[in-house]
UniProtKB/TrEMBL annotation:
Keyword tags: Secreted, Signal
Hemicentin-1-like von Willebrand factor A domain sequence ranges: 5-122
Main subcellular location of this protein, as a coarse class: secreted
Lineage, broadest ranks: Eukaryota, Fungi, Fungi incertae sedis, Mucoromycota, Glomeromycotina
The UniProt record lists the keyword rRNA processing: no
Name recorded for this polypeptide: 15212_t:CDS:1
Compartments, record wording: Secreted
Sequence intervals crossing the membrane: none
Keyword field contains Iron: no
Originating organism: Funneliformis mosseae
Pfam families from the UniProt entry: VWA_4
Amino acid sequence: MEVDLCFVMDCTGSMACHIDAAKNCILNVAKYMEDMKPSIKIRVGFCGYRDYCDGADRLLIFPFTDSCMNLENDLSTVLAKGGGDIPEDVLGGLDAAVNQMTWQNKIRVLFHVGDAPPHGRRFTSMTEDYPEGDPNHLTAENVLEKMQSENIFYFFGKINNLTEKMVNIFHSIIGDFSVFDLEIVEGNPEALISKFFEATCSAINTAVSLRE
């Protein structure tokens, strides 16, 4: 079994209490899968996103690797910072993962973790800087439909209820997908590591069963 696993994650300041635990979990998953060789061969990649106001720091793209050391070195540079209003460049992050990552293996898993919706009145009624939506003209339809055409399975890790409308819209575009509860009591990062690990393994198992 050969798997490409890409984590797409909100890396803005609001994720400060989650991001270290999430990075630890990504490494735990990679090390666990490395120990499963040769029955499972996995490449892990990472695509972090912030917001349009963050300029060159808006996207963090680390290519797929089967080396835990390379992955650890990459993730050590990821910090929770930036972001302007509450919505973030979710569509930009997903688009980068679909189009800029080099997907190769038959089983392709995209695990998205975030605590805020994309920009636009379609996704939120909150006051924001881009009520008309993505200024780069990305839409949920063109991003998610391209994801489907590339045979990439989408999974979402929910941290709070701000993404509820986004999830419903995504469901209306690509159909059913698993949403994992990653909400934790603040100050208990170990609980997030456990939830994140279980959710990631479940996502991989689901993708494998759907591809068989």
